[in-house]
Design brief:
There is one protein chain. By secondary structure, this protein is α+β, with helices and mostly antiparallel strands. It has one domain. 25% of the residues lie in helices and 41% in strands. The protein contains five helices and ten strands, in the order ααβαββααβββββββ. A ten-stranded antiparallel beta sheet has the order 1-4-5-6-7-8-9-10-2-3.
Length: 200
């Protein structure tokens, strides 16, 4: 996949560190790479999330959902169809779409101490729903690079209510969506939805 170029970067960085203590210190702190380029392919978040949903479906894994509002916590089993809808929140809208891709900037941060590469997508356009998207990848020179986590920050409005969302996907384990609703003339309400298909 496209992010293999950063795996190579990380491996080269590690090789340099064997001969340079100063470089080693810098690598442990992390190294940022500006990959802003209108022709570059963004990390395929939609394809990855869909593959996770397909994995859960094909293995018939039990899916549990816990909804938390205030002090109330309601656990329940979840059907595959509902899980697919929740998963879609992680790639809707898709920042790779030509209509909005130009408004996003990609940077990559290599941290050898883990080791990992984090792809970050940000925008200065306040009208876009996804404000930030982070993909944490564990590079592997032998097997396929492995996604560890995906994190998003969203903001949108419906009627007289504004919504702020923080979404977190842990590969092969679980996901969580925290939604804060702020009515124009009312109290703020926060709802947390936790979904697990691994028992965690």
């Amino acid at each position: 996949m496209k992010y293999l170029q950063y795996s190579i970067f990380l491996l080269l960085l590690a090789a340099c560190n064997n001969n340079n203590n100063t470089a080693k210190t810098a690598a442990n702190q992390g190294t940022a790479i500006d990959t802003a380029n209108p022709n570059i392919d963004f990390f395929p978040v939609a394809d990855y999330i869909k593959s996770q949903v397909h994995m859960v479906d094909s293995m018939q894994l039990p899916i549990m959902k816990t909804t938390i509002v205030g002090k109330d916590s309601v656990p329940a089993s979840m059907k595959q169809e509902e899980f697919s809808k929740i998963a879609a929140e992680f790639y809707t809208p898709d920042i790779s779409d030509a209509g909005i891709k130009k408004d996003y900037k990609e940077t990559a941060f290599a941290d050898q101490s883990i080791p990992s590469v984090t792809f970050t997508y940000t925008t200065k356009n306040p009208s876009l729903e996804i404000l930030r998207l982070d993909v944490l990848v564990k590079p592997d020179p032998v097997q396929s690079d492995k996604v560890r986590t995906i994190y998003l920050e969203k903001f949108f409005e419906k009627g007289d209510t504004s919504f702020t969302q923080k979404l977190f996907w842990k590969a092969d384990k679980n996901c969580q969506i925290i939604t804060t609703a702020q009515p124009k003339n009312g109290a703020e309400i926060t709802k947390i939805v936790k979904v697990s298909w691994s028992g965690e």
